[in-house]
Amino acid sequence: MNLNAVAKKAGVSTATVSRVLNGLDQGARVPEDMSVTGFDNIKLAEFCSPALTTAHIPREQIGQLIFENLVPDSEKERLTGREILVEPALVVRESTALARDARAIARHKQTIVAD
After folding, report:
1. Which stretch of DSSP H or E encloses residue 90?
2. Cβ-count burial of 50 within 10 angstroms (0-12 exposed, 13-18 middle, 19+ buried)?
3. 54, 38 contact by CB (below 8 A)
4. pLDDT in tens, 89-108
């Protein structure tokens, strides 16, 4: 496998891809032993196994804002010179889990509640 190609396609460093793959080669399980996340919510993310947790970037909203500022509409207010906030959304799928310490705390709390 060409790590540079994987990293370039994924938009991450070769070192990051190498560490993840090395962990998997050593028997690490996703998400039991390590969580893996992506960015940009590409279509492939939901079809991976396990499905990849990712940040969704509202591309259509960004495109619409750019268009509205480049092609002004006399009836709409232009946003020139203003900061425009576009919020991403976290799409939680199967590739992430609570950290081990958090799971232990959660189990401990459940034990206390059950008693």
Report:
1. strand 89-91
2. middle
3. yes
4. 999 999 898 877 766 666 65
